[in-house]
Amino acid sequence: MLLLIPGPVTTRPEVRAALTHDFAPWDNDFRPLYLGIRTRLLRIAGGRPDEHVTLALQGCGHFVTEAAVRSFLPPGGKLLIPTTGAYSDRMIRLATEAGRQVIQLPIPQTAPTEPQVVAAALAADPTISHVGLVYSETGSGVIHDVVTVGAAVRAAGRRLIVDAVSAFGALPFDLSAQPEVDVVVFTSNKCLECVPGFGFAVARIDRLLACAGHAGSWSFDLADVYAHSLRTGGGSFRFTPPAQVLNAFNVALDLFDAEGGQPARLARYTENMRVLYDGAIGLGLVPYLPREAQGPVVVNIHAPSDPAWNLQAFVDALKARGVLISNFYNTPRPSFRVGCIGAITPADMARAVASMGEALRELGIQRREAA
Ligand SMILES: *Cc1c(COP(=O)(O)O)cnc(C)c1O
Q: What is the phi/psi pair of residue 339, to 5°?
């Protein structure tokens, strides 16, 4: 089955095979595995070993994003969030429920965040300490430029929290060039092509130390994760981790390196996206984004206007052909979404497009322009 949902993604057999090893997470065989992964992720993030540290949290992307917001903003602290789409909405909700003040910055969801708009919002309210930016907005498929928005945040003397959950490993990122970034968060199961189980944060050490005590949660306190790693030598977790996943993740990082790292992954995903985008147009469908705003991670396609259109029936017809896509809409106008990330190739994407054509015929969808 091709998982194009996107995340968890299709994984390679070598990654799944590595899940068969059991580990005791405090054992001397396990500690170097975790320490090695922390170093490898620091390198991918462009972190400096004396300035940045990799921390892992059990669970999903929302957990580590909430941990980042709680750990770097004090209770009642103020966070500006550009409303990029479904995932900025999630950051808004989790920050609000964590008792932080969220200032929403309304932006068009079909174009990248403009740095001058962020600069103006920060100038208007000096009590905003942080900006929370979704790097790759999985809701729309738009990539938001962390470098130019980061420069605006830095110029205003504020701090940046980056949700890179669907970006990290595929889109370039260099912490050493972005001192305004407190933390970047991501997971094991998107562009790094492992199974779910971990959220990761690469964070500034000075800021972790300065923000100790902010979280108001033991589970979601990155400063406490860091303090624990200092106490224990860094190879252990505070609470039981999915230890088998960490072994599989290490294999996934081997495959990442063997492929040629982030530039190679970006090139493959970009080609996947192109085959899908052009293929959808070839079927008479209408992509949600104009080509210039289309990122390489996820392509949304307008639901066809044909009265016979039914998303679940389409998903079922595709699934019968070995292709699984999301069965919900994530955009203001209904569009079905197809992931371009994971252990899949442009040839897989061409097969997915052919299956879409067959599924549309099976359902009798003649009118394919946007509903
Ligand atoms: C997948 C994703 C998340 C986190 O999702 P989880 O289901 O909690 O793992 C957060 N942000 C973005 C941009 C994502 O794509």
A: -80, 145
Cα of 72 vs centre of ligand 1, distance in Å, is 19
Condensed to tens digits (0 to 9), the pLDDT of residues 274-327 reads 999 999 999 999 999 999 999 999 999 999 999 999 999 999 999 999 999 999
3-state secondary structure of 337: strand
CATH of the domain at 63: 3.40.640.10
Report pLDDT digits (tens) over 12-26. Answer: 999 999 999 998 998
Q: Which domain holds residue 176?
A: 14-257
11 φψ region: left (φ > 0), alpha (ψ -120 to 50), beta (else) = beta
pTM greater than the 0.85 cutoff: yes
Domain co-membership, 138 together with 52: yes
DSSP letter at 79?
E
Identify the residue whose C-alpha is closest to ligand 1 atom 2: 165
62 lines ligand 1 (CB under 6 A): yes
Q: Does residue 7 lie in a domain region?
A: no
Cα torsion 180, 147, 59, 65: sign: positive
Residue with CA nearest ligand 1 atom 3: 61
Which residue puts its alpha carbon closest to atom 6 of ligand 1?
A: 61
Show the tokens assigned to 9.
């993604």
Q: Which residues of 29-44 are buried (b: 16+ CB within 10 A; e: fewer)?
A: ebbebbbebbebbbeb
Residue 58, classed as helix, strand or coil, is strand
- Count of residues in the chain: 371
Residues 226 and 359 in one domain: no
213 and 277 share a domain?
no
In a domain, 4, yes or no: no
Report CA(95)–ligand 1 centroid distance (Å).
15
Contact partners, residue 124, CB within 8 Å, separation at least 6: none
Cα-Cα end-to-end distance for the chain: 29
DSSP structural state of residue 239: S
- Domain boundary (257, 290, 315) is at 257
Question: How far is CA 69 from its chain centroid?
Answer: 16
Asked whether residue 305 is assigned to any structural domain, the reply reads: yes
> Which residue, of 199, 231, 257, is where some domain finishes?
257
112 and 248 fall within a common domain:
yes
Q: What is the whole-number distance in angstroms between the Cα of residue 229 and the centre of ligand 1?
A: 25
